[in-house]
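tl;dr need the bound structure. longer version: we got a ligand (D-xylose) that a collaborator sent over and nobodys looked at where it sits. i said id run it. heres the input, straight from their email, havent touched it
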Amino acid sequence: MSVVLGDKEFFPSVGQIKYEGRDSDNPFAFKWYDENRVVAGKTMKEWLRFSGCYWHTFCGQGHDPFGPGPQRFEWNNPSDAKSRATAKMDAAFEFFTKMNLPYYCFHDVDLIDEEDSSVEEFGKKLDFITDYAKQKQDASGVKLLWGTSNLFTNPRYMNGAGTNPHFPTLARAGAQLKLAIDATIKLNGENYVFWGGREGYVSLLNTNMKQELDNLAAWLHTAKDYARKQGFTGNFFIEPKPMEPTKHQYDFDTATVAGFLNKYGLQDDFKVNIEVNHATLANHTFQHELQVAADNNLLGSIDANRGDYQNAWDTDQFPNNVNEAVEAMLVFVEAGGLQGGGVNFDAKTRRESTDMEDIFLGHIGGMDTFARGLIIADEILTKSRYKELRAQRYETFQSGKGKDFTEGKISLEELAEIGAAVGEPEQMSGKQELFENIVNQYI
Ligand code: XLS
Ligand code: NI
Ligand code: NI
């Protein structure tokens, strides 16, 4: 990939980031992510399909509930919306190509300021900026991993979009949804994401949950039918999150989403986009969410970040915990990777990280963490006794009556007879410490 600049270079102090290996002291080099290195039959680039996100990296300036963001972005200087949007896109593609990121993602409103546009005006703005994005994609080879619609920031969506109790508001959201799907298809987006923004409730006293969930299903069916009619063959992803902004989000976690998709006949078109920090907010591990998704044939994509052990909100920090990355990549590799998606950095530098180069450092660290996790997970799976030890715990289900049981061929009467004959079964250690030590050994 070669660096693609616009009229101006926004990050002149940083060149293209290359792999230099773990002995390099260059902070602007990958220590582990070597895109052409083959691990378990595929290159790292093919396994991980890294993606940069527009919202945290080029829009959010570090604001928090106590004050505006201190991060200063030169691409915000132009006074008209179109020039700001093209400057931001120049900066974004400079960044993607300097980072060697094969993909990017956006919300419709990240691309160009919505201001108080009508549906028609916003459609025209999106036409303008997606024409420009097309040129940038062609010039760089960077592709659109997924597009989505921001149906949660504008105050009109305070009660939700697809689950809004007021049909005219739901329809207004539908108009924006259609524009975002059109923009994604125009840019050959490989997937389309639904993160449930304000699809949830704050108080059940004023909420008809069944009506809202029936509407959510109808909303998703409508979107899918429209996109398919336009020739879109990619996946739709639901991104689970248990809370924030609403007290209770309907797409709580992967298991909840799996039940919902099956109930409403959406399971063939929709998969999940699992975000690390959303998993931890649901009191799960990232690894747990990946496993539930993999076992239900739903493992579509990943929003990479991390939470904070002491805070209970979506801090969206860059991933840096190797032990957790290894545990997650064990599931990822055994599942054969992602179905259609990639590893998107839904992560932001800290409010106090105000140098322009800091966003490079965040992504380098995150990419290296995943790369390192991938290498180590593959070694554990191929060199250690990990799989064998895990299989041993279930050995008694591999043949005889145990196998018959799994296959549903044993009645409770027969089970009781076997159980009575067994007497007091022998004690089987779970050996968790041994498994943990194996992980450590390979790190
Ligand atoms: C918010 C979500 C959001 C989605 C895209 O918590 O992670 O950023 O990824 O709408
Ligand atoms: Ni996300
Ligand atoms: Ni999030």
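gonna send this back to them w/ a short note. The CA atoms of residues 321 and 385 lie 24 Å apart.
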